Amino acid sequence: MSSRSDLPAHRRAAIAGLGMTEMGKVYGRTAQQFAAEAVRRAVDDAGLGLGDVDGLLVSAGLGGGVDLSLQDDLGLEDLRLLSQMQSFGSTAGAMVQHAAMAVEAGMADTVACVFADAPLREGTSSGAAYGSERYSPSGWGGLIATSGFSGPNSFYALAARRHMQAYGTTSKQLGEIAVAQRAWAALNPLARFRDPIDIADHQESRMVAEPFHLLDCCMVSNGGVAVIVTRGDRAASLAQPPVSVLGWAQAHPGGSLRRDDDLGLVSGAAQAGPAALRMAGVNLADIDIAELYDCYTFTVLLTLEDYGFCAKGEGGELVSTPGVLGPGGSLPVNTGGGQLSSYYMWGFTPLSEAIIQARGQAGRRQVPNHELLLVSGNGGIFSHHSTLVLSA
């Protein structure tokens, strides 16, 4: 993948708007309604009008409900780009990639990318939203399910246990990620969980799927997030500081749980990370902030290894080293609290926080050095991965 560092800034795609609805246990609204509000907020944030939008990319979570009819709900006419995209937690990065390519190729001028979901129901548990009743596989998948593996908790737990057996990674090391991200969340007024936690709290939280405690697992949220992608020259004249999209890449290793599979040992980040950095024309050492997909603490650890922030198998040592991940650390990771403590909007959680940091609008949690940011998305059981390199 070639470098885009020689592409003039005025031609390079940039994120010019960010729209976020209320998120969490917000009831009485459909995913489509959340999506429409998020797009309107993103357009307003950029200082544009809906009539300026000529591209729309939509995505829904497991609850569904967001589709191409969002164009009509928003009253958008004569779009030059319209598509529904789905690669699970890697979708946000993929959407920005497609929007950036369309803008730079002249296929569209202003593209809105939106994700929304509303799986939570009043009176039911958050766990039920992503519970085993949603997973009724047939064929080979059905055979696996008869052994008790059903739903993401069990499969990610299996991946984490394999890493532990291979490299000696411990539950307490995973807990360090949860503790660091909660420290960031304490500084984020948008975060759902802001009370400080320590390793003892992590270890004493109930077991969900061994080796995962409750505090290893992300929350479930209703809500929506949208971003506006346009050309750099246009973004520079709009209401917000533009966030340039320097590089991107995807990797889709798949996951069949076949014999000798590498589940838990390597992810698509190992391919997508270096490719995105090469496109951006920067090195990993240049990255100031990493906003990493964190459906589980283990996802963060494996992504850090695969991007190259440490050697394979040394993720546990890295995350447990004092003064690395948390506020004031040498490698700020998931500075808004992530999906573990802040809000769960699939890949739009790390993307939205990266935009806020790049703009310098993060308030008490603002990282002083925020010129280059790495954003990851993970979908399936490490089956899909997307990487973005953003710049202030």
Helix content: 25-40%
Shape: globular
Total count of strands: 11
Low-confidence stretches: none
Mean pLDDT: 93
Question: Distance N terminus to C terminus?
Answer: 23 Å
Strand proportion: 15-25%
This entry's quaternary arrangement is single chain
Domain Thiolase C-terminal: 250-391
Protein name: Thiolase family protein
Pfam family, one: Thiolase_C_1
Write the layout of secondary structure elements.
Blueprint: E1 13-20, H1 31-46, E2 55-60, H2 70-74, E3 81-84, H3 91-104, E4 110-117, H4 126-129, H5 139-145, H6 152-167, H7 171-185, H8 199-204, E5 207-209, E6 212-213, E7 223-231, H9 232-235, E8 243-251, H10 269-280, E9 289-291, H11 297-307, H12 315-319, H13 338-341, H14 348-359, E10 372-379, E11 384-391
Parallel strand pairs: 2-3, 2-4, 9-10
Antiparallel strand pairs: 1-7, 1-8, 4-7, 5-6, 8-11, 10-11
Organism: Saccharopolyspora ipomoeae
Domain Thiolase C-terminal: 250-391
Protein name: Thiolase family protein
